[in-house]
From TrEMBL:
This is Thioesterase. GO terms for molecular function: long-chain fatty acyl-CoA hydrolase activity. Residues 7-119 form the HotDog ACOT-type domain. The keyword Ribosomal protein does not apply. Belongs to the acyl coenzyme A hydrolase family. It comes from Flavobacterium rivuli WB 3.3-2 = DSM 21788. Pfam families: 4HBT (PF03061). It comes from the Bacteria. PROSITE patterns: HOTDOG_ACOT. One of its GO terms (cellular component) is cytosol.
Amino acid sequence: MTVKHPADSICIMTDMVLPGETNPLNNLFGGELLARMDRAASIAARRHSGHIVVTASVNHVAFNSAIPLGSVVTIEAKVSRAFKSSMETYIDVWIEDRISGEKTKANEAIYTFVAVDETGCPVEVHALEPQTELEIQRYDAALRRKQLSLVLAGKMSPHDATELKALFM
Ligand SMILES: CC(C)(COP(=O)(O)OP(=O)(O)OC[C@H]1O[C@@H](n2cnc3c(N)ncnc32)[C@H](O)[C@@H]1OP(=O)(O)O)[C@@H](O)C(=O)NCCC(=O)NCCS
């Protein structure tokens, strides 16, 4: 297994918000954004692992700003930490001003993917080494997010969630 960097997995998708993808307030429908983020993040996880990947959990989504009809939306996904077979993927969503082209952060999310073989069994993935300050912050916090996700899914006892417990002590 080789060591890879978050930049090796980056997936950037730019698209427009069209009628039929909006809610009654003419803003992007939340489920549509979730699907777009899932697609970009799964490509990032596939680029990191070189395997088929499946979404294991959606760990966090913040719909901070509404995204109006006609907006140009850029979704940037990168693997933020690799474990044994699972990968945390961080997704940043930007909208751009039509006249100035300036990009404003609208939303962010964190998804977990698992690399699997043709029969759906988890397989080991490359290690990930963060490089920038932001990548290091996200990498360091990923283990407690994994533990929280596993505790909520009933797959880990809260007693074993050492990183998570350390937050409250
Ligand atoms: C995700 C899946 C492969 C995990 O299989 P499993 O039998 O639970 O396998 P394991 O218990 O060995 O877990 C595999 C990895 O997933 C991680 N994982 C499982 N559930 C998780 C959750 N809710 N949150 C975070 N990580 C999770 C485990 O911690 C483990 O990570 P590691 O190998 O890096 O330590 C399996 O549950 C599955 O196929 N789910 C359906 C996926 C799907 O259809 N997604 C939507 C369409 S893409």
